[in-house]
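In the design runs reported in the main text, the only information available to the sequence generator was the tokenized backbone. The following block is the verbatim input for one such run; it is reproduced so that readers can re-run the procedure and compare outputs position by position.
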């Protein structure tokens, strides 16, 4: 009789496989190299003027003991800023998506999602009783095909700026198509928050399309430089989530300090010119791209600029080469992206200097053949 592998052995085997593929994930210390890696697009993590708080924790979930007038005032401020009927603060973008997608559709309904949708939405969909289909990335014909196969209430999940490609959803066209099928759109604005729109409101408001969406997810861990998220939508949606979203109901609420940080980030968005500096830097980066770099580049107007470097070893070689030049950026490997679509992911910030951007381009030029 063959001996069953112990759990410990099984875990070790899975790790050994990752090691063998040169794709073992390890935690890095915070780097002192030039930041072309973090999602802190506006540098807010270092510059927010956060009011101190004496409370270290919220003491319970919002429904038990964790709610406060501070939550409610901040939710009003967020809803106002985003021209939404309501906002519901969640502990993170991951929590928001898992809680929203797991409860929003029911048996007989259909969720259709872009093939490059974030893992938090995929995980929420997995917990849902609805049927689900993916459509080809940003492809309207593919979306239409899936809409034709859908039944029940239809939810379409898309992102504004895709986190591993940096490209933008054709929102207006997706809305027009979805209207024909009475499909409800949920837009994850994680990488557009603080980036698109005059004051960083996100993609929907930059096109004045916010009223055409069923819900939006704004996250605060990226350009906002802090932590947490908000789901924007109708009063009914907010009340429904308070009653049915398990990650909202069964988790300790954010502490007052986190709320102060989110508040400070919204105040800073409306008062500073970090967003125009960010776009100036993105334009500079793009203007320096040579034909060789352009041939590997995933076209993007956003702070996320990626160059396809197929093969784990190759992508890691470029990552290491950039580090030798004093630049911090990450190779993105399978399974985060499809096999053969490994890449180097450069994140541009408002605080990167013109010399740093030039150094980044020159180094990429030298390392990418
Ligand atoms: C598109 C998208 N949605 C949601 C999340 C999760 O947000 P958070 O980091 O706040 O959990 C991320 C973060 O990686 C993301 O890129």
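Verbatim output:
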């Amino acid at each position: 009789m063959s001996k069953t592998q112990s759990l410990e052995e099984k875990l070790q085997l899975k790790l050994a496989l990752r090691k063998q593929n040169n794709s073992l994930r390890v935690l890095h210390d915070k780097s002192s190299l030039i930041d072309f890696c973090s999602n802190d697009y506006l540098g807010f993590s270092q510059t927010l003027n956060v009011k101190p708080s004496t409370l270290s924790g919220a003491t319970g979930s919002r429904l038990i003991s964790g709610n406060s007038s501070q939550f409610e005032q901040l939710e009003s401020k967020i809803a106002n800023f985003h021209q939404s009927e309501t906002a519901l603060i969640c502990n993170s973008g991951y929590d928001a998506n898992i809680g929203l997608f797991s409860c929003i559709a029911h048996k007989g309904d259909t969720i259709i999602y872009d093939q490059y949708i974030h893992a938090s939405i995929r995980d929420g969909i997995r917990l849902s009783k609805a049927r689900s289909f993916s459509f080809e990335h940003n492809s309207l014909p593919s979306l239409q095909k899936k809409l034709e196969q859908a039944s029940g209430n239809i939810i379409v999940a898309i992102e504004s700026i895709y986190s591993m490609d940096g490209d933008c959803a054709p929102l207006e066209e997706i809305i027009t198509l979805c209207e024909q099928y009475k499909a409800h759109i949920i837009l994850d604005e994680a990488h557009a928050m603080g980036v698109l729109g005059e004051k960083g409101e996100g993609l929907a408001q930059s096109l004045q399309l916010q009223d055409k969406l069923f819900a939006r997810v704004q996250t605060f861990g990226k350009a906002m430089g802090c932590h947490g998220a908000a789901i924007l939508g109708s009063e009914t949606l907010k009340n429904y989530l308070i009653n049915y979203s398990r990650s909202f109901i069964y988790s300790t609420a954010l502490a007052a300090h986190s709320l102060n940080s989110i508040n400070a980030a919204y105040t800073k968005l409306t008062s500073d010119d970090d967003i125009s500096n960010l776009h100036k830097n993105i334009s500079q980066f793009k203007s320096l791209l040579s034909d060789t770099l352009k041939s590997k580049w995933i076209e993007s107007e956003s702070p996320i600029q990626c160059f396809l470097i197929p093969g784990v070893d190759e992508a890691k070689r470029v990552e290491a080469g950039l580090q030798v030049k004093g630049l911090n950026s990450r190779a993105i490997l399978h399974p985060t992206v499809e096999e053969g679509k490994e890449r180097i992911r450069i994140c541009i910030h408002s605080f990167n200097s013109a010399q740093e951007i030039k150094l980044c381009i020159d180094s990429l030029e030298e390392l990418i053949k």
